Amino acid sequence: MYFKDIIGQHAVKERLIRMALENRVPHAQLFAGPEGVGKLALALAFVRLLYCKTPQNGEGCGKCSSCVKISKLQHPDLHFSFPVVKPAGGKKAVSDDSLEKWRKMLVDFPYESFERWLSYLDIENKQLMIYTEEADNISHKLGFKSYEAPYKFMVMYLPERMHVGCANKLLKLIEDPPEKTCFILISEDPDAIITTILSRCQAVVVPAIESVDMVQSLQKNYGIEIQRATDIAHIAGGNWLKAREMVELADQNIQNVAILRNLLNASYQRNILEMRKWADGMTTLGRERQKHFLSFFGRLIRESFILNFGVSQLNYLTPEENELAAKIKNFVREHNIESFNNEIDLAIKHIEQNVNGRFVFFDLAVKVIMLLKS
After folding, report:
1. Left if phi > 0, otherwise alpha if psi is -120 to 50, otherwise beta: which for 131?
2. 328-370: per-residue pLDDT in tens?
3. Residue 365: its pLDDT value, please?
4. Which of 39, 43, 229, 342 would be 215's cystine partner, CB 3.0–4.6 Å?
5. For residues 42 and 68, is the Cβ–Cβ distance under 8 A?
6. Cα 100 from Cα 180, distance rounded (Å)
7. Ordered domains of the chain (ranges, CATH)
């Protein structure tokens, strides 16, 4: 990853480039901001520039041995720590066991998302953590001298998911690391990090991507017209992962609108036969596709509720979504919005638990009858 490839974030890039060129590298930095804004990408571009043997105009050259290793995320002085799942059988849970999957995710597309990491691990356990034993692994790695770079780096993803035992063990190391050793913590919820670690890090705030930068990147990468790019940028809210997903899943989103319209029509009319057909049709979709629809359903219900306030700037809908939301907004009010969300969340939970999809979706359709009529 190079700075030039990162969308927007001009002020942050300028700060990091100046820091690298002036060789003023803090021993601990906290890159804090929402998901999909490029925090990990910025960290990798920063390390590349520092490690490059022949930097050019504030960028790594991409050709020297260090740049080649950084491109593969296999530089011996660059280390990673990230949340993992606790293995069965009492085996220690450390990042190194999932390092190849981590590298593949970042090489494929180095924009951060916890959901993406779960998908690369091919699990649905959201209780991933950085466990206590990780602290000993980190201490061991950083105890050696650097092999070839001027600095050793430990890039920690989501330190807010550190077990308190791990955080306490790392506190001294983060406060006073070995010479030429640096930490970069990548956080989406810095308030959840223990204050003793937080206070030892220099903050680098990475904000949501500016709309103008998002629109330019959408046009450049996907060749879409400016109005559609503007609509997507507004809905994505500065999250490039969300914007990219909207472009790549545009057809699926149109299908979701049609599927939801069929559900609402059948439930409103209390047409049990059509509700059963709808539930049967949902079982032909894969589990991930089912979950994607349910997430879409939840978002459209929330957006329909917000439509009632009459403030268009608060809504994040495509034209197809807006047409459907305008028709159901009068059925989504203060008295049932929470119940809608609860039923959708329950359906997602049941799908994740492999409950029979026919039962899950028919039950949801019946619940929608009561919620619409309420």
Report:
1. beta
2. 888 888 888 889 999 999 999 999 888 999 999 999 999 999 8
3. 93
4. 229
5. no
6. 26
7. 3-207 (3.40.50.300), 210-238 (no CATH), 249-373 (1.20.272)
Q: Strand, helix or coil at 193?
A: coil
The tens digit of pLDDT for each residue in 132-151 reads 999 999 999 998 888 888 88
CA distances from 185 to 81, 136, 190, 244, 347 (A): 9, 17, 10, 25, 35
For residue 337, give the nearest of 364, 374, 366 by alpha carbon.
Answer: 374
In which element (H, E) is residue 105 found?
helix 99-108
**Letter for the amino acid at 180?**
K
Tokens 């957006």 correspond to 303
Q: What is the pTM of this model?
A: 0.77
Give the C-alpha separation, 309 to 208, whole Å.
Answer: 25
Q: What are phi and psi of 183, to 5 degrees?
A: -110, 140
Contact assessment for residue 1 and residue 45, using Cβ atoms and an 8 Å cutoff: yes
DSSP codes of every residue in 217-243: HHHHHH---HHHHHHHHHHHTT-HHHH
DSSP at 5: G
Fill in the DSSP letter of residue 188: S
The predicted pLDDT at position 227 comes to: 86
Closest CA to 215 of 197, 235, 201: 235
Tokens of 325: 């939301």
Residue range 145-173: mean pLDDT, rounded: 91
pLDDT mean over 112-128: 81
- What secondary structure does DSSP assign to 119-182, as a single string? HHHT------BB-THHHHHHHHHHTSPPSSSS-EEEEEE-GGGB-HHHHHHHHHHHHSPSTTEE
